[in-house]
């Protein structure tokens, strides 16, 4: 298996020389795993007659016999060879199923590596210099994650794959200009996508409007509906502008935009935050609060503030 892994890494290096990026997909015997692989094929390898943007590497982690059984004492040594044989057969079944699903991908690589799936996948990302790691989620709750250990949760914190760029958006012209600027400088169609793009919109909550008195409840409900509609329009506009970006996600989160964006940076482990500037003077920044100024001081990542030229209007 070591020789196969070395050969696979060499093949991935060849793909990089061709200008293609590498995607590692972790597979096991679960339905969640096969769904993740099918989702990946449908979204990244479905274009007929075109060379995929990614080189596909499918990795199965085979646990050691000792870790799978946890036996000790007399007779344990006699049982382990049978367990090892069963584990090898299981891994072969997984790989055969993966090959069947990936029949349309002519140059996919498949490898079985021994060890804990969490470590195996993170090491595969490093070895193949992969830009993206795809794993299925079993949907464990907090207790099961703590007791059993979540592979997807571990990999999201330890696998150093595609950098994440988070862009804060609202319904202002400054925001749309910022999005246009970001797309023009980082996501041109003729260049490989270097970042996973996350759009976060934080419309004000009705509580921030600051109203009270008779009829407040009815008015707040109307305001809440209007704010949700406005947020949906912003997201649809962003999706329309980002039609050429294949790896983007969108979210609407309730709260003060300054806190929402800084928390989103931490949650997504973003490498860069991009926000627009309304060009407020010192007095307006002090009274209204500047989102870009706040984020530049409190988001513990690179913050890029894009300021729209005065003559520039969003088309």
UniProtKB/TrEMBL annotation:
Domain of life assignment: Eukaryota
Pfam families in the record: Usp
Signal peptide: none
InterPro entries referenced in this protein's UniProt entry, alphabetically: Rossmann-like_a/b/a_fold, Universal_stress_UspA, UspA
Gene3D superfamilies found in the cross-reference section: HUPs
CDD domains: USP_At3g01520-like (cd23659)
Domain UspA, chain residue ranges per copy: 22-167
Record PANTHER family: ADENINE NUCLEOTIDE ALPHA HYDROLASES-LIKE SUPERFAMILY PROTEIN (PTHR46553)
The protein, known as: UspA domain-containing protein
Species: Oryza punctata (Red rice)
Taxonomy of the source species: Eukaryota, Viridiplantae, Streptophyta, Embryophyta, Tracheophyta
């Amino acid at each position: 298996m070591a020789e196969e892994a070395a050969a696979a890494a060499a093949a991935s290096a060849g793909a990089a020389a061709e200008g293609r990026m590498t995607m590692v997909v972790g597979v096991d015997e679960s339905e969640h795993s096969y769904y993740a692989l099918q989702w990946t094929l449908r979204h990244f390898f479905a274009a007929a007659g075109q060379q995929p943007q990614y080189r596909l590497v499918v990795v199965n982690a085979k646990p050691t016999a000792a870790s799978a059984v946890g036996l000790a004492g007399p007779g344990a040594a006699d049982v382990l060879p049978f367990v090892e044989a069963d584990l090898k057969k299981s891994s072969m079944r997984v790989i055969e199923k993966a090959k069947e699903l990936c029949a349309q991908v002519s140059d996919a690589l498949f490898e079985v590596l021994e060890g804990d799936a969490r470590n195996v996948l993170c090491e595969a990302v490093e070895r193949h210099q992969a830009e993206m790691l795809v794993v299925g989620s079993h949907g464990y709750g907090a207790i099961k994650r703590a007791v059993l250990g979540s592979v997807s949760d571990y990999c999201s914190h330890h696998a150093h794959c595609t950098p994440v760029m988070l862009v804060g958006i609202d319904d202002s012209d400054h925001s749309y200009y910022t999005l246009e600027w970001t797309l023009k400088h980082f996501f041109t169609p003729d260049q490989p996508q270097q970042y996973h793009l996350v759009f976060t919109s934080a419309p004000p909550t009705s509580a921030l409007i600051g109203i009270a008195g008779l009829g407040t409840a009815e008015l707040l409900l109307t305001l809440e509906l209007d704010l949700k509609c406005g947020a949906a329009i912003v997201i649809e506009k962003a999706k329309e502008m980002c039609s050429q970006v294949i790896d983007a996600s969108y979210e609407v989160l309730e709260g003060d935009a300054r806190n929402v964006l800084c928390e989103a940076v931490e949650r997504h482990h973003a490498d860069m935050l991009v926000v627009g500037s309304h060009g407020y003077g010192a007095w307006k920044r002090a009274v209204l609060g500047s989102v870009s100024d706040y984020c530049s001081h409190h988001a513990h990542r690179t913050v890029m503030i894009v300021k729209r030229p005065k003559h520039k209007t969003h088309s």
